[in-house]
Amino acid sequence: MREEFLHHIWKLKKFDFIRAETTAGDPILFIDPGRHNLDSGPDFFNARLRIGDQLWAGNVEIHLKASDWYFHGHETDENYDNVILHVVWEDDVEIFRKDNTPVPSLVLKKLVDPSLLKNFQQLFTGNFTWINCEHHFGEFSDFDVHNWLERMYIERLEERSLLIEEMLKESENDWEAVLFRLLAKAFGLKVNGDAFLSMANSINFKTLLKCRNKAEDVEALFLGQSGLLDSENEDLYFNELKKRYAYLKHKFSLQNDYVIKPKYFRLRPDNFPNLRLAQLAGLYSGNSGMFQLLMHSGVIAEIRDVFDVEVTDYWKTHYNFGRPHKVRKKKLSKDFIDLLLINCIIPLRFAYGKYKGDFLEEELLELIAQISGEKNSVMEKFEVLRPGLARNALNTQALLQLKSTYCDKNRCLYCSLGHKFLQGSA
């Protein structure tokens, strides 16, 4: 038994409340169960109940055992003076407030439908290896799954908007500067995301604007601030960039003491940090009006076109300095651009819309649904449980949120699908 389960029962009145009475035999009439409190203090605020002939307004505290009241020290805590009902699974001791007045108690054990208790025990004590409802995940209705995944995706955007809001404060409300930082992190992917972000943080965005008319200057700025021009190399282009960077560093008083140096270990050549930074430089070289188009275009092809950029000629024949190869296109792949949309552009559009007071949920849901789903081990397992579910990025992002925030933390009682299972409607 979990106390969260009792919260669920109380909040949704999943018990025989018609027969509810206190341990003293007074009938209880439920008017309002109160507001669920997830912070410190009583579990439900501002409940309204009629106990016997008296109408009460106050708080409700819930425990597995009545004696937990004393175990948690509530008898000396003034925050619990306004508790009007103590809801328990087992009544093992009489409870008193700080002023020695008794607290009415309700025992739920005999009021809960055995089938609900059975489903709860099956959900939390079953021999499952991945998620609690894995043997039943394919049985939920398409309608329930679709609605909950949309909610999960919006929740994921809400979480990401908190980081964006912090970036906005740091950049003095410069949304284009926030876009640059998010793009830099996204270009670094998992291995070098933090390194690229630290590089972007080390550059005043106004400095980048002053350099953007020359592609080589932007390359020198990014590579130099990342520490990739610190070594010695006989390559002519390397030394040209190093010379440009030395000039820029002096001119703009650049510092990179706290920049994380990118890694090459186990990366394919297409993801080498110097190439990714050169591509990012290509995006910012002479490109104006990018922010407005990315924030307002509703056509995904137009958004993808923004990232159809070329690298300078040197990188068409190099993955690293001093190691030439035959000419190859080094444009951003569609899959990489879609990752930028998923991890950067759409979250930024959500945060930007909130900032302006625009509600863009439906627009962004339509946009993300046009992008193919990501492929990873989590999606592979969900596909086994419910084939076809990971078909688009809306679902895959939502499933990542569901798995990490609910399934992995056993928060089934806060999950809409968990509720459906408990009700026996999976």
UniProtKB/TrEMBL annotation:
* Family matches, as InterPro entries: DUF2851
Domain of life assignment: Bacteria
Pfam families this protein is in?
Answer: DUF2851
Q: What is this protein called?
A: DUF2851 family protein
Give the species. Answer: Salegentibacter chungangensis
